[in-house]
Amino acid sequence: MTNIGVTDKILIVEDDRNLLDTIKYNLHKEGYEVATAVDGAQALETARREKPDLIILDVMLPEVSGLEVCRILRKEVTTPILMLTARTEETDKIVGLEIGADDYMTKPFSLRELIARVRAMLRRARMAKIQPEVKGDLLTIGDIRIDIARHQVSKGASPLELTPKEFDLLVFLAGNKGFVFSRDQLLEKVWDYDYTGDTRTVDVHIRWLRQKIEDNPEKPKHLLTVRGTGYKFEE
Q1: What does DSSP assign to residue 146?
Q2: Which of 1.10.1740.10, 3.30.750.200, 1.10.10.10, 1.10.3720.10 is the CATH number of 138-233?
Q3: Is the pTM of this model over 0.70?
């Protein structure tokens, strides 16, 4: 078992029974507890009842679509969501990220890569829940205050609600302010695995982070785009 002392629970939502059973079997082998659902309505019911640590969510589902399930759950919980999409469903990938999915994989996919993604997402989600008794390092940029150890961010007097991935991205860029990072570099450093998919994952998270920390997201002062290269954080 890979999770010594801790048994993470994963909810798989997939209406293809063969694929569902395959993913379930392989996650069980890795030591995870697994719950399953085969349609959107069952997914919502199971997620609320089981309170999983991570959700693997197919886009194309009967009853309620995976996108709608993601939209509803993101209003209720910050549980990491990994969406599964068909290779031709480009719009669904972007929409999924925009409504709160943390990552996506296109079918067909490697089970080894799926497990690697699951491990990385769970590890970062677990780190985000740690609340040490002593104060950690603080980053203060203008009216933005980042408490790295407590995983807390505030703007002025208002606390900000960031997803684990948004927090990781902000800390990395703010902690390396002035340096320009390509999308591939950000995927490697922040997403914690070699990524071979669409780098627009980074663009979507940058856009949502700007909505939360910038006075005017359309004219950002901190999270800047370096045309043709990537992104940087400026004070």
Answers
A1: E
A2: 1.10.10.10
A3: no
